[in-house]
Amino acid sequence: MAEIRVTLPDGSTRTVEQGATALDLARSIGPRLARDAVIAEINGEERDLATELHDGDRVAIVTADSERGLYTIRHSTAHVLAQAVLDLFPGATFGIGPPVEDGFYYDFELPGGATFEPEDLERIEARMREIIAERQPFVRDELPADEARKIFADHPYKLEIIDDASTDPMSGTGDRGEVRTYENPPAKPKEHPPFHGRPGFIDLCRGPHVPDTGTHLGHFKLMRVAGAYWRGDETKPQLQRIYGTAWHSRAALEEHLHRLEEAARRDHRKLGVELDLFHFPPLVGSGLPVYHPKGGLVRKLMEDYSRAEHERAGYQFVYTPHIAKADLFAISGHLDWYAEGMYPPMELDEGQAYYPKPMNCPMHMLIYGARQRSYRELPLRLFEFGTVYRYEKSGVVHGLLRARGFTQDDSHIFCTKEQLGDELESLLAFVLRLLRDYGFDEFEAELATRPDKFVGDPDDWDDAEAQLRRAVEAAGIPYVVAEGEGAFYAPKIDVHVRDAIGRRWQLSTLQVDFQFADRFDLTYVGPDNQRHRPCIIHRALFGSFDRFFGVLLEHTAGALPAWLAPVQAQVLPVRSDHEEHARRLVERLRAEGFRAEATDADEPLGARIRRAKLDKVPHVLVVGDDDVANDTVGDNPRGGEVERDLPVATFIERLRAEIESHAP
């Protein structure tokens, strides 16, 4: 039989028989690769393993434990979910079911407006496992659109996709108006097939998929049901969305489920109530937090520290109003680019529209432009804790992490082109130093570069991107280049951190702006006595102070470091006759600058210690007879061993050192 030659990712070539598939190639390389193979990348296009190879093809085998392999596993599991639901709920219709981070979902509409009950997920899981055990093949086909309409005649959401397939990421159309489908022929055909005479399950899909339902599928769990508007449009029907998670191995699934349990335990919304820090009153509105005294104290401590560090770094503090005329946001471009994210205007002053500000940038531009600037004033670093308001849809509001009103630690730096590189390096170093002070030490950066549609001079973009790259390389943190993912007006660096359970959070942003200097006609007088446009850097250190507070609570599981804890030491008298001594000790600690409080001995000591531990107090100090006599305490530190007969003076020295070092 004739042979063909294909090229592998390392540049080597391999000979296989003519007619060989991608799976045959994997088998020829080794049984382990064939076992782990999910799909293949052929000449840069992802294809099923059953795809026939041709002479000269460039082929890479995608394995189950890779990002793209997991994506395919989740995609295929979503199809199995849809098949199971249509089997168990006659008359159900289905929408789309893409993979998402760590899992997948599928949208359904049950007949008669019925809803899924929690116990239905167990039934659906059981049916999915039966389908997986049948090892039904995923069979790809290209159908004329008219034929596809007949097949999906009872599924209106699929008909809409067929009519407008280009808008749906999981469907495909060929050059001749064909629709790509994947079908799963069942082991036992149903007496009344749900797809007009087709005996199996069929779905619109670009693919690719695993070879059959028994290959790499099975390590999954259905998680929950939620409402979801069809295509995210509130004017369209609300469907029921079943979320699931799927992995390449049982161990990976169990690790993920454990991580979810830990994340639930650390949920900042739950901790906010338990620790009496903040809550979201229904009378205030969705996504608008109110901070209680303890939460307000933590915010103050964070803000005071940030102000001190910014002042030391040469920033100048400004304050701007919460609302402004529509004209300001027309000049800035927000009404063109961002109107859907803004609250509706208020009509004041005989019909003048005022908007709550979604960003602080435009007002900082006005401050710079209030008078003529000289090159001798640059770099000019303006800083504000500015509260902004963004009308997030109710479905995406998520506690402090996605709020409608929040405070940004916002800075805008105006500098010359010659100063830009040094300023970016200094800014990034400053950002990383402050994040480390809050206990974060795993950083990754993303450099977003010029998109296809952009404004400004390409040479300016190239220079700014080069300066941003030098800054992140000087910082010594790993980074990736997100080609073409910059905003149309600016390249940027996003700094991500990993928390205590390995989740990745995007926090800080450095963005070089090519729009505002022109829009607001900002200039400075250079040494040549000519006017020049300044470079503008947008810099949000924490992004949103509120969001950072939520991330920090989840990172620490509510056990804030001593320098941020609302109560740093709680003194517990063993008996009521020790209460006066406990109160004097609290006064002494407060005189030293510590946040301390005492409790009365009106409950058993063990119960009071447990309560203090639940309140995440860094140091629980117990005083009894010997402590009163010898000026000592029993220190029960959070996460440490109890130390008895500790001299108070020694405890004070240790606590001061712990606070000053910002120890986690």
Main beta sheet: 8 strands, mixed
* Named CATH architecture of the largest domain: 2-Layer Sandwich
Mean pLDDT over all positions: 92
Number of strands: 34
Name of the level-1 CATH class of the largest domain: Alpha Beta
Strand content: 25-35%
Strand order of the largest sheet: 16-21-22-29-26-25-23-24
Alpha carbon gyration radius: 30 Å
Distance between the termini: 68 Å
Structural class: alpha+beta
Q: CATH homologous superfamily of the largest domain - what is it?
A: Bira Bifunctional Protein, Domain 2
Please tell me the total number of domains: 4
**What coarse outline follows from CA principal-axis ratios?**
globular
Helix fraction, binned, reads 25-40%
Which fold does the CATH topology of the largest domain refer to? BirA Bifunctional Protein, domain 2
User: Uncertain spans, ≥5 residues at pLDDT below 50?
Assistant: 166-175
Count helical runs. 20
Key words describing this protein structure:
alpha+beta; single chain; Threonyl-tRNA Synthetase, Chain A, domain 2; 26% strand; 34% helix; Ubiquitin-like (UB roll); 664 residues; BirA Bifunctional Protein, domain 2; eight-stranded mixed beta sheet; 4 domains
